[in-house]
Amino acid sequence: MRRRGFTIIELLVVIAVIALLTAIFMPVLLAVRQRARMMLCNSNQHQLLLSFTLYQQETGVFPYGFSDKGLASTLKPPPGGWAGRGIDKKGWWWFHYLRNISDISLDKGSVVWCPSRNVDDSQDARTLLCGNYGVNRSVCRDAQGVTSSSFSGEPLRAGQVKRPSATLLISDSGYSLLSWMAAVDTGSPPFENPARVNSFYIPGLLLNQTRGELTGHPDAIEGRHPGGMLNLGFADGHTDSRPAEFLGGGINCTDLADVRLPSLWSPL
Known about the structure:
Layout: H1 8-59, E1 66-67, E2 92-93, H2 94-102, E3 133-136, E4 142-143, E5 168-172, E6 177-178, H3 180-184, H4 218-221, E7 229-234, E8 239-243, H5 245-248
Helix pairs in contact: 1-2
């Protein structure tokens, strides 16, 4: 007896059912995947905070955010070579200092790389400095090299941070250094490096939509995690997830000489 196969109509019905189920469940699977990446990002920051704690206990201070002390022939490259590319300054970054204490890896996919990074520039996509995590420059200050700014000086000791549970230490960020200036876009040169103006931002902040240099930048405009959320790490070692506007809100700034900062940005 000859077996009866599927008719064209039956095959089309099966294909239609599969397509319908895919359309229904794909957004759910995508949301689950994004949520998992956000949780991994939070875990990364938690591990980095442990490294910050070890560094602070070992040295008595937080690490520099960036240091270019000893320029020219006296500035030794960090292990693994300089971070960034041609437009980035040569120096030691906060993750280089942590690496000396806790031996963290800087390889792609390690704890210093955000699993939800959304950088589309082909060169910046390969750069650790862009689209991952940034430290609060008011805590991890810049060593004064060839330039100086309000964030230059010695990094703080833990005892100098008056409200550690409310003071930002590390966050999802457009660049490896972050400050309230990046939050409110005062027009000041970012990190004294105008070539990096399109890297200094808080992912998903509404204000980014008014900044022409960020037009078409997915990480800056669309944000990084579901619901416009960011992962944050605080000076006391705890992590939290907050909306992007949390970092930009509360800053009363009419000009640079009269800025008043919330405790989130101001450790002193």
